[in-house]
C-alpha cells in the first residue's frame, strides 16, 4: 500500500492510497521514494489539461525491484525525473511512496550528495543541460558531444540564483564559456562567483542591462549568447512587453552577431529565443507533441550521465 498526492479533475490536491504495488517491466525499476522534489509543474500542468493522476516529477530513493532489463540493482541509490505523457500515468508520479522509474531518466546518486539534495537536482540539471547543449548547440568533447565550441565566448545567465541558473552557471563553466555573466540579488553574488560566474549583477538595478553590456565591451568579448532561466512577465495579461526578462536580456547583448538565446518559457514575440525542456522523450516528437531534434534526448542523457558519473 502506497500513499500519494493526487491531482484531481478540478485541480485540487489530496492524499490518496494506492492499494496495489506497481510491477516494473523492461528497463523500469520500482523505487522507494525518500524525497520528491516540488516544482511549479506539479500544479501548472493542470492548466494544460493534465489531471487525475499522482503528481510529482522529481525523486530520489532506493531501488527495491528492478525490471528484467533494468541497469540498476536492488539497493542502488538513484534520482531522476518522471516522463510526461498525455494522459499522465500515476505510476510515474513522484509524490508517492513507490514510483516506477524509467532507466533513461534515472541516475545513480553521486557520492557526497544525500537524498534530499538529489531529489531537487535532476529537473534543474536537465533543463540547464537542454538549454546549453541542445538548444544553443554547445559542444562538450568530454561527454562526446559535438557542436559549437564555447571557448572564448561570453554567456549571460539571467536568473543565476534559481535552481536552473545554478546548474547553468556550472555547465557553462564546464563547457568553456568565459566570461560568464549572471544576474541575481546581491546576497547571492558571492555564491554564484564561487560556482563559476565571472561577473554578477543585481537584476533589480535600473542600470543592469547597460552595466552588463558595458562590462562585455570593456572585456572586448562580444556578448551574443544568453539563457533566461525565469521568463518573467511572459504570458501575463496586460504586461508591458518591454519589461519582460527576455526583453531585458536582449538589451544586454553587445554584439552584431546572430544572437543565440534560450528561455525556460516560450517567447512568442521573439523567435530568436529557443525553448528548453527538462524532459526530452526519445524520437522526433517532444513531450507536448511538437517536433524536436531526435538527437536531443541522446545528447541530454550524455551530458547528465557525464556530470553525475
UniProtKB/TrEMBL annotation:
Keyword set includes Oxidoreductase: yes
Any GO molecular function: oxidoreductase activity, acting on NAD(P)H
Domain Enoyl reductase (ER): 8-249
InterPro entries recorded: ADH-like_C, ADH-like_N, ER, GroES-like_sf, NAD(P)-bd_dom_sf, Trans-enoyl_RdTase-like
A Pfam family that the UniProt record links to this protein: ADH_N
Keywords attached to this entry: Oxidoreductase
UniProt keyword annotation of Acyltransferase present: no
PANTHER family reported for this sequence: HYPOTHETICAL OXIDOREDUCTASE (EUROFUNG), ZINC BINDING OXIDOREDUCTASE, PUTATIVE-RELATED
Assigned protein family: Belongs to the zinc-containing alcohol dehydrogenase family.
Protein name, entry field: Alcohol dehydrogenase
Species: Colletotrichum musicola
Taxonomic placement: Eukaryota, Fungi, Dikarya, Ascomycota, Pezizomycotina
